[in-house]
């Protein structure tokens, strides 16, 4: 079975791996370099965690994701996951800690509530209210995103996969190719691509712009950051999240609530000084001495929001019986892409009969 994949971010490369694993012949095309340094998947790190865990969906997704990543680690011969742990600090007044822990346990995930000194030990550079409570997941942590993309590309290539980089996308031409299945895995560009050919699906997709800051912590904080967990939320509704410095890399910070919809990817690609200052000001109360941190870089990450918490894996019969869309997932796409790709392969093969 010949499979053509349009898009070489984490969605396209995960799909390529999964289809090859099922014995298919794979080719992948991208309008830019492969991997694409300007793509939403291309970064030093991505978080992997089960939050929010107030309903069973996110924990179950993570359970499937961890299993899929294990298959990838075995295939590439190395583990590109730093299990520094991940936690989320619950907003003040939340009384559903047992429900969160129950959902995590129901998915077969280890988790615990941490408070006081135990919480301070896991986030030694973060200042929190004394009464703060967090949910800690020891299997969570950080995926080494850039290395994962390169390793998947190498794996697919070593198994006979073909790549076409910096190739202008001509959708009618692609749909005319004699592939047994064509997968549209174009990330934040999906709505723009689908609008002329699948407007109903395109209306479900919203490209979103998230700004991430990369900082060099002061020398005196290095030991504390080396012991720190990754965090997803610091006890309020703004979704402050951070990746601790890894392998002498920078501290990575973002504010989920500051993500905003885009008319199209590529617009306002560079963060403004005002946007950078706004993020730093939001972190200042929780990160004492932030003025001593040196800003190394600021970049935007574009991804696609869609209804519901899961990936969209949908055939597109209006434009071709062999055409599928693979995308969405609201910003949690990197950690869940391999598991979603395995389900995509099952659906494609079942429909083909």
Description:
With 353 residues, this protein is of the alpha/beta class. The chain contains eleven helices and 18 strands. It has helices at residues 10-21, 57-76, 97-106, 116-122, 145-158, 171-176, 190-194, 199-202, 222-226, 273-283, 333-352; strands spanning 2-6, 25-29, 46-48, 81-82, 86-89, 112-115, 133-137, 141-143, 162-164, 181-184, 206-216, 230-234, 240-243, 251-255, 260-261, 294-305, 311-315, 323-328. The protein is globular. Strands 5, 6, 7, 11, 12, 13, 14, 15 and 16 form a nine-stranded mixed β-sheet that branches. Strand 12 and strand 13 (240-243) form a beta hairpin. The termini are close together. Helices cover 32% and strands 25% of the residues.
Keywords:
18 strands; single chain; alpha/beta; 6-stranded mixed beta sheet; 9-stranded mixed beta sheet; 11 helices; 353 residues
């Amino acid at each position: 079975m010949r499979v053509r994949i349009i898009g070489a971010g984490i969605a396209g490369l995960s799909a390529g791996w999964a289809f090859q694993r099922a014995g298919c012949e794979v080719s992948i095309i991208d309008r830019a370099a492969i991997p694409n340094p300007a793509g939403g998947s291309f970064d030093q790190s991505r978080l992997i965690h089960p939050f929010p865990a107030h309903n069973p969906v996110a924990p179950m997704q993570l359970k499937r994701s961890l299993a899929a990543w294990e298959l990838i680690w075995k295939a590439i011969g190395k583990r590109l996951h730093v299990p520094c742990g991940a936690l989320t600090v619950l907003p003040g007044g939340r009384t559903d800690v047992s429900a969160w822990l129950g959902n995590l346990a129901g998915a077969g995930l280890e988790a615990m509530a941490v408070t006081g000194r135990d919480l301070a030990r896991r986030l030694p550079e973060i200042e929190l209210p004394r009464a703060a409570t967090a949910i800690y997941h020891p299997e969570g942590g950080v995926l080494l995103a850039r290395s994962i993309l390169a390793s998947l590309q190498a794996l697919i290539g070593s198994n006979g996969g073909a790549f076409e980089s910096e190739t202008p996308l001509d959708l009618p031409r692609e749909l005319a190719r004699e592939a047994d299945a064509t997968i549209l895995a174009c990330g934040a560009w999906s709505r723009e691509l689908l609008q002329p050919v699948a407007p109903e699906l395109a209306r479900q997709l919203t490209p979103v712009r998230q700004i991430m800051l990369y900082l060099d912590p002061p020398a005196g904080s290095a030991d504390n950051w080396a012991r720190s967990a990754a965090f997803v939320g610091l006890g309020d509704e703004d979704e402050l999240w951070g990746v601790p410095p890894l392998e002498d890399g920078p501290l990575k910070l973002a504010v989920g609530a500051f993500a905003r919809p885009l008319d199209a990817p590529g617009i306002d690609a560079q963060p403004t000084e005002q946007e950078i200052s706004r993020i730093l000001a939001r972190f200042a109360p929780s990160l004492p001495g932030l003025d001593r941190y040196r800003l190394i870089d600021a970049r935007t990450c574009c991804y696609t929001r869609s209804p519901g918490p899961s990936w969209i894996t949908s055939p597109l019969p209006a434009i071709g019986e062999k055409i599928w869309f693979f995308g969405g997932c609201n910003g949690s796409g990197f950690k869940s892409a391999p598991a979603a790709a395995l389900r995509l392969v099952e659906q494609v093969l079942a429909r083909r009969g």
